[in-house]
Specification:
The complex is a heterodimer of chains A (129) and B (101). With 129 residues, chain A is mostly helical. Chain A contains 4 helices and no strands. Chain B has 101 residues and is mostly helical. Chain B starts with a helix and ends with a helix. The relative contact order of chain B is 0.13. The chains are: A mainly alpha (129), B mainly alpha (101). At the A-B interface, helix 1, helix 2 and helix 3 of A face helix 1, helix 2, helix 3 and helix 4 of B.
């Protein structure tokens, strides 16, 4: 008996993957949500740091704790990715980088640059310089 | 359009803020208050929070509309998010006005 539908049904997950533009798009949304969650933290830190000398010292102390610094690296990645991916969309709005090759190249630049920023922050934390 | 305009302002302001914090980090609460209290900087912060909350609203509204099916639930969540963002805006305004000139 021959199959009516000769297409393969076993999906090789190592051979199918999202195009890089789709990954940038998903991460743009994900990083945006992460930054959204950070807004109250940012307002809190601003409020405390401006309140008085104790609050200022407390925020400095908080920002120096390893856990918060690691979280800061995550925020640095999210911010860089969100900013760069957003700029890429603005350029695409201006008809720059619309064709397939340019759009893919731009998506790679955004993804890699955001990770580079995070790694630089991590290295700075690790006291590399 | 709103999302793009606010994005541009947020990008400019945050890069300016980061540059300021890295190049001349405030050494004391007085320096810090003086900088945020400067009329121009204070106004830029106020516009920043307004732009940030509008930008966040458009973003989370799109996410909610994409992933939340039931219309009733969607409305409740959007209403709660709107209230939440307004509350954050009020809080930020109070913080800024406390050091305003």
């Amino acid at each position: 008996m021959t199959s009516r539908d000769p297409r393969p049904v076993a999906l090789d997950l190592f051979r199918i993957h999202f195009p890089v533009s789709a990954v940038v798009s998903i991460l743009h949304r994900l990083s945006g949500l992460l930054l959204f969650l950070g807004i109250p933290v940012a307002v809190y830190l601003l409020e405390r740091s401006l309140a008085d000398a104790r609050g200022f010292a407390r925020v400095q102390g908080l920002l120096a704790t390893p856990a918060l610094r690691l979280f800061g690296v995550l925020v640095a990645w999210a911010f860089s990715h969100h900013l760069l991916a957003g700029l890429r969309y603005l350029l695409i709005d201006l008809d720059i980088g619309v064709d397939r090759a340019a759009a893919r190249a731009g998506a790679w630049v955004v993804s890699v640059a955001a990770v580079v920023v995070a790694v630089v922050c991590l290295a700075r934390l690790g006291g590399l310089w | 359009m709103l999302q793009r305009l606010t994005a541009l302002y947020l990008a400019l302001f945050l890069v300016y803020l980061l540059a300021h914090l890295i190049l001349s980090p405030p050494g004391s609460v007085h320096e810090w208050r003086a900088w945020v209290g400067d009329p121009l900087v204070n106004g830029a912060w106020a516009v920043f929070f307004a732009a940030l909350l509008m930008h966040a609203w458009v973003g989370v509204r799109d996410v909610v509309m994409d992933y939340l099916g039931p219309a009733g639930l969607r409305l409740v969540v959007l209403f709660a998010l709107g209230l939440y963002l307004f509350a954050l805006g009020y809080w930020a305004l109070v913080v800024l006005l406390a050091v305003a000139p």
